[in-house]
Amino acid sequence: MLNTIINRVSCGRLQAPAPSKEELNLLLQAALRAPDHKGLKPWQYLVFEGEQQLNQLAQVYLQASLKENPELEEAKKERILSLPHRAPMVIVAIAKHKAHEKVPHIEEILSTGAGVQNLLIGAYELGYGAYWRSGPLCFNPHLKPLLGMNEEDSIVGFVYLGTPDIELKARPIPDVSEFVRFGLDWIDDC
Questions:
Q1: Based on the structure, what is the number of domains in the chain?
Q2: The CATH number of the domain where 61 resides is what?
Q3: pLDDT digit string (tens) for 14-46?
Q4: What's this model's pTM, rounded to 2 decimal places?
């Protein structure tokens, strides 16, 4: 499993097939094993698969974008409508705001992000490609009600899933010493 984590790469060029229902269930089970302060289960995953559902998601993207900017150019509208069709399956990862006095919403967002990472690792392990996207739609407040979200909820990202359309190439593994320090001895003032 550590090799899968170390060697996992994102893949933005995806085609059918997407994970089967059984495989998707396993991936979502992995996502639901994310660390979760106070057991609030703040996660919600909206799955869109197939032409009809991807078209529905595209229309929702366009409605939210037009509410934010009614003067959108035709080329931008077409681009927005094409976004969900980058893969045969798109999962919208949402952190639901549970309003717990000891758990700030950022922890719910982090928990959902950890769930997305589990999903990405699982997809790679099963031989699928995945890409975690964010962008302006993640932060468009008009998208939330169109997806059945409350104002306090957060979109953590859009996970695109499918079969890689290109050969996946491992990226160089960063040198651990560039990102890790032990203790505080490395700070001059200590």
A1: 1
A2: 3.40.109.10
A3: 999 999 999 999 999 999 999 999 999 999 999
A4: 0.93
